[in-house]
Amino acid sequence: MGTDILTTLEDGILTVTLNRPASMNGLTISMTRELNDRLREAAAAPDVRVVVLTGAGKAFCAGGDIKEFEAIDRNDPQWVKWKDDPIWNDIDNSAERTRRASEGPLLLHGMPKPTIAMVRGACVGAATALAAACDFRIVSDTAFFSTAFARIGISGELGASYYLSKLVGIAKARELFFFADRVPAAEALRIGLVNKVVADAELNDEVTTFARRLADGPPLAYRFIKANLNAAETRTAEDMVAMEALNQVRVLRSDDAKEAISAFFEKRTPKFTGH
């Protein structure tokens, strides 16, 4: 494992840290691949109940490292071998590699456990997709957001248009993309881009407390709550009634539901196992 992505697991809470502080955690090709690998592992790991994504130093992430835009992935033998081949470099094949590299937000959005973006300082470009794909965004008063794509003459990536539109609405998303202005933390809260803004000195403690509540909660119920909410983004009311009914029966028959009901009557805190 490289050092551009750091992970720490503490009692069910996995913290994934983008770790290139000297470059404001700008994403390189190899770093993006490693991030996707760590998130894929987190999605499947039974001992991970909550994922917190953050950046080292004073920034969350400055987006894709512009110096890498025309670079090759030297850790990919296929890329090294075919880097000068016109078929390898045609639009369709290049787009497919970009699509595969864009898995991070899909994993954050789709994994069956809560995800939290802990943001301080810059959250720019591709980083806006990573943060917006999380279930929650808790940010420092130093945080600011910008799609930034139009400023360097590109159209956007990693599903940023999807996630931002869902959070702030299509009209506001158009404004964020076309103008790419800087959105400070307070404005981000006002437009619904983030859940909470706290003083920078309090950010780590605030996120730890927030994540601890989720980690102590019912993981099986959370899995189906998240599945319901994600499905509701595209499905009809009739579809959702049917899906919720099935998921509700699944959860009601679980050990966790029985434990929660027993704890309620015994006036104690339930202990959930995810079964």
In short:
The protein is built from twelve helices and nine strands. By secondary structure, it is α/β, with parallel strands linked by helices. It folds into two domains: 5-215, 2-enoyl-CoA Hydratase, Chain A, domain 1 (Alpha-Beta Complex); 219-266.
Quote the average pLDDT.
Answer: 92
Low-confidence stretches: none
Please identify which CATH superfamily of the largest domain we are dealing with: 2-enoyl-CoA Hydratase, Chain A, domain 1
The gross shape turns out to be globular
- End-to-end C-alpha gap: 31 Å
* Count of alpha/pi helices: 12
Which CATH class of the largest domain applies here?
Alpha Beta
- Judged by helices, strands and strand pairing, the structural class is alpha/beta
**What is the CATH topology assignment of the largest domain?**
2-enoyl-CoA Hydratase, Chain A, domain 1
Strand order of the largest sheet: 1-2-3-4-6-9
Q: Determine the fraction of residues in helical runs and give it as a percent range.
A: 40-55%
CATH architecture label of the largest domain: Alpha-Beta Complex
Strand content: 5-15%
List SSEs in N-to-C order.
Answer: EEHEHHHEEHEEHHEHEHHHH
Q: Return the domain count.
A: 2
